[in-house]
Amino acid sequence: MAISLTPLHPVIGAECSGVDISQPLTKVDAAAIDTGMDRYAVLVFRQGTPLTTEQQLAFTLNFGELEAPYTQIQAAQGVRWNTAGLSDISNISPSGGLLDRDDRKRLSGLGNQMWHSDSSYKAIPARYSLLCAHVLPPEGGDTQFADMRAAYDMLDTKTKTQIEDLDCEHSRIFSKGALGIPFTEKELRDFAPVRQRLVRTHRTTGRKSLYLSSHAGRIVGWPAPEAQILLRELTEHATQREFVYTHRWRVGDLVMWDNRTTMHRARRYDDMMYPRDLRRTTVTDGVPTVEQKAQAA
Questions:
Q1: DSSP string, the chain
Q2: Which residue would you say has higher pLDDT here, 73 or 60?
Q3: What is the pLDDT of residue 268?
Q4: Is the pLDDT of residue 183 over 90?
Q5: Are the beta carbons of 191 and 182 closer than 8 angstroms?
Q6: CA end-to-end span of the chain, whole Å?
Q7: Residues 208, 238 contacting (CB under 8 angstroms)
């Protein structure tokens, strides 16, 4: 059966059918999924049964190299598992219960409800993220995706010219710090700001997009208040309803998105009452955005 893509929103997102992602992909199917990502930026695979860790890692590796390990804010009890390349996006403690209200991992995880792009705080940011649903709350906990390509297209010419050559500083110090989370000395060193382009050009399609995130806290060469105002204005513009697809999860869903051309956020749910267990794999983009700009010049 050939892969079929059914649009889920006028500008972003499609459901992908006709392929069993729990099994090894052919090169033809992997290429078709990559092409679908270039067009839709978000693909939804409704498997019905969650992928195993091995299956999710195998599927992810069709699209590039996994991100290298990096410093994360952990639960008081430690980690649920030590599987390289698999991120625990949950409110579940290593003992199987819910995280305490003041657990640093829980508090840090609340930042996922802010619009962001995965790993924009790294010198080499993420390409694709793949999130698989294992356990879901009875209500809430949706994930929203905003199309940064469509948002860029709808900017006026004056704004496009103004932002074309700007670099921003991204850091978890900006995003988590805005929530009042304190950092250790090691975290402050590891979370040092990195530079990213504010406008990116997709290497395959040539299409331009905004590169925004809650991790973006400064514009290089600008006074901090002026930078914050522009970044907030652009974020408000980019997250208007016409650019946003809301995914309502079912157990077994795997959602794959392009961090270069989207932002996303989780929606609130009662995390002190219900577990929400999603597991993410992430493919690195391979090169800093500032180098991508230089290569394109």
A1: ---EEEESSSSS-EEEES--TTSPPPHHHHHHHHHHHHHHSEEEEE-SSPPPHHHHHHHHGGGSPBPPP---PPBTTB-S---TT-EEEESB-TTSSBPPTT-HHHHHHGGGGS-B-TTTTSSS-EEEEEEEEEE--SS---EEEEEHHHHHHTS-HHHHHHHTT-EEEE-HHHHHHTTT----HHHHHHT--EEEESEEE-TTT--EEE---TTEEEETTS-HHHHHHHHHHHHHHHTSGGGEEEE---TTEEEEEETTTEEEEEPP--TTTS--EEEEEEEE-SS-HHHHHHHH-
A2: 60
A3: 98
A4: yes
A5: no
A6: 42
A7: no
The token pair at 182 is 């304190």
Q: 83: domain range?
A: 4-296
Under the banding of pLDDT at 50, 70 and 90, the label for residue 82 is: confident
From residue 137, alpha-carbon distances to 11, 69, 155, 227, 267 in Å are 28, 29, 37, 38, 12
pLDDT of res. 290: 86
pLDDT of amino acid 1:
67
Q: What confidence score (pLDDT) does residue 109 get? A: 96
Residue 3 tokens, joined: 């892969």
**Residue 214 belongs to a domain with what CATH number?**
3.60.130.10
pTM, two decimals, is 0.96
pLDDT tens for each residue of 8-21: 999 999 999 999 99
Structure tokens belonging to residue 74: 């952990």
| Cα–Cα distance, 258 to 180 (Å, whole number) | 29
**One-letter identity of residue 275:** P
Tally of structural domains, the chain: 1
Please give the Cα distance from 234 to 32 (Å, whole number): 32
For 227, the token pair is 């930078």
